[in-house]
Amino acid sequence: MENWSKRILTPIQRDSLQAKISHFEEITGAELLLVICRSSDPYPAANFRAAFCISYFCAFFWATYHPNTPAINLVVYLFGFFVAGYLLSRIPFIKKIFLITKEMEREVDEKSKELFHSMGIANTKERTATLLLISRMENKVRLIVDSTLKEKMSDTDVANIEALIQKKINKRKYFLGLATIIETLEEKYLHFFPNGCPHSSSHELKNTLMWQDYSH
Questions:
Q1: Is 123 helix (H, G, I), strand (E, B) or coil?
Q2: Rg for the chain (alpha carbons), in Å?
Q3: Which residue did the predictor score with more confidence, 120 or 83?
Q4: Which of 2, 9, 92, 192 is most buried when burial is the number of CB atoms within 10 A of its CB?
């Protein structure tokens, strides 16, 4: 497992969450898929924004302190600064500086919807599956419930659950946030379906915590 994932959860915490997922599915009869991704998109536009800004400022300061630099040399330096800025932008915390909030919101939304369908969550027999996506670089959370559960849960319910875990994620308390959200979902589902979700075997999807990296 890559280093970035090890910084989020310890092996003991991963095992604990795995047990909570299994218990959730056994008790509720619903499917739950937790996905933690390093980033929801490579954000190539952010690389070029960073390269442009870094090269512009470097060239400006160079010209300020070396006013007699020949124009052809300055053009060469500008190109070098651009390449250096592009390479630096591949470092996550530098790239994040050049990301736009709406851009991040859009990409996390699109990735959650893509995963909901590509991982078979939308194809369970009784439509009782739930996807919880945490995108680390954007620091965003998305919760999608399938149609059977959506009939019971309002958009406000979903937004409140997202907000609950978002507070924990903002403080980098990933394990506490995930554990809390599983327990909250379990309470919600048992409230709506005291005897378990209708006719669900809760074994149609792998009940594992999944790690993904879409940053490249």
A1: helix
A2: 22
A3: 83
A4: 9
Residue 29 DSSP code: -
Section 160-184 average pLDDT: 92
> Which residue is associated with the tokens 């800025």?
85
Alpha helices in the chain (DSSP H): 3-6, 11-28, 44-65, 71-88, 92-97, 101-118, 147-150, 155-170, 174-192
SS3 of residue 96 by DSSP: helix
What residues contact 112, with CB distance under 8 A and at least 6 apart? Answer: 131, 133, 142, 144
For the record, the structure tokens of 163 come out as 């907000």
Task: Give the global pTM.
Answer: 0.86
What single DSSP character describes residue 121?
G
- Enumerate residues 6+ apart whose C-beta is below 8 A from 165: 132, 134, 141, 177, 178, 180, 181
Q: Left (φ > 0), alpha (ψ -120 to 50) or beta: where does 205 sit? A: beta
Domains along the chain with CATH numbers: 3-41+100-212 (3.10.310.50), 44-97 (no CATH)
